[in-house]
Target: TOD1/MUCI70 glycosyltransferase-like domain-containing protein
Amino acid sequence: MGKVTATRTPLFFQSKLLCISVLYLFTTLFLAFYRSVSPTTCLFRSSPSDPIQSPLFYYPSSYGEHKYGITTHRHSCSSPVFFSDYGMVVGEIHNLCKNSSAFLPALRYLHGKADTFGGNFETQKRFSYFNYSNDEIKVPCGFLKEFPVSDSDRIAMESCNGVVVVSAIFNNHDKIRQPVGLGSQTLVDTCFFMFMDDITLQGLYEHKLIPQNSPDYKVGVWRIVKVFSEKLYENPAMNGVIPKYLVHRLFPNSKFSIWIDAKLQLMVDPLLLIHSLVVSKDADMAISKHPYYVHTMEEAMATARWKKWSDIDGLTQQMETYCKNGLLPWTTDKLPYSTDVPDSALILRKHGLGSNLFSCLLFNELEGFNPRDQLGFAFVRDKMNPKLKLNMFEVEVFEKIAVEYRHNLKKTGNVKAVSSGGGESKKTKRERSHGHLVLTDSSCQNYLLKMWGESHS
Model:
């Protein structure tokens, strides 16, 4: 009898696991190839309105891109934060902005005339406004001296009644950067304003980015607002604090805002950001955690060490004042506040009582001491009443939604840019590393012992 020879399946195809692995490998390679050749397009998008991916403005070659970008952002298709469908977000925020009752009760402001923009009140007088227990209280919140902008700019600012994105460049310290990834309806519902002084504008004239004889300026999405800074503070950094913390007063009809330092480039649509980080979290304000520091005193010591503010005696007095009045290091007792130190380069706000009160109180501290806003942040937050509903998001989220660039410290034509830290000229790190706070045998001793105890426990 002859033998029946059975046809055997090749060994290669007998392993289901191997087949699946090979299929997975080729699928992964395909997706990687697709992403590499199409870096600005998501393969899977749930939004019916794709973002505008083409550049909104082309700079002249003389101005150029800043070559010192710190490229930590992720691809637009991967994110550590959940973004809802763009079309749904546009509709929800539009409805919220029409519902004025969602932003009540309104904060009342102190009016009058003073020698400084914020009135420069004594310490205990400022602290007396922290407890806002009565809607009849009028809180000092700047504008006790005129904010020097043109009438046409003021009208445009008051006409912004939805979401406003705000930035500022003083002392020619940065370059203008255009946001990317804007949705198809965003420019209809969102205003973009950039505040500048004469020195910065002169640099734009030289690069022919704006005409010298125009009453209104616009560069890409940004409307440029000229501020006559000689009528405000001598320090450019303090002038930048006005639009940063009094955005709700400069834009009295806006309902939400995003402050973005000029060293940052926004990489995600602002409506998506407001919805994801403020509206969905039922927060008054959203701000990133600091990448390194948790305690206010850590930031104060770093400020002195690197002379981010040159008046060391003033820094010491500020910390002594806060310690005497109840400043404590961060512990779990402060939860849900997850740290005392933010990265304040990006701030998202709902213009309601909580964030407006916080912004006014912190601005008064900045005028009273110095424009280093991270130093007074936790003190105001912890002492104010009613409490601020704050979303302090992770550093990974910050790196997703913005690209950070180093400040522009180079000469541009006849324009000289200098450091904003106390008005001092640029120095090397080695030269700047000798400053330190002297807080031993002081009212901050208990703070330091508790902070170091927590750090080593």
Remarks:
- The chain has a mean pLDDT of 84.
- The first strand starts at residue 69 and ends at 70.
- The longest helix spans residues 16-37.
- Residues 55-407+437-454 form one domain.
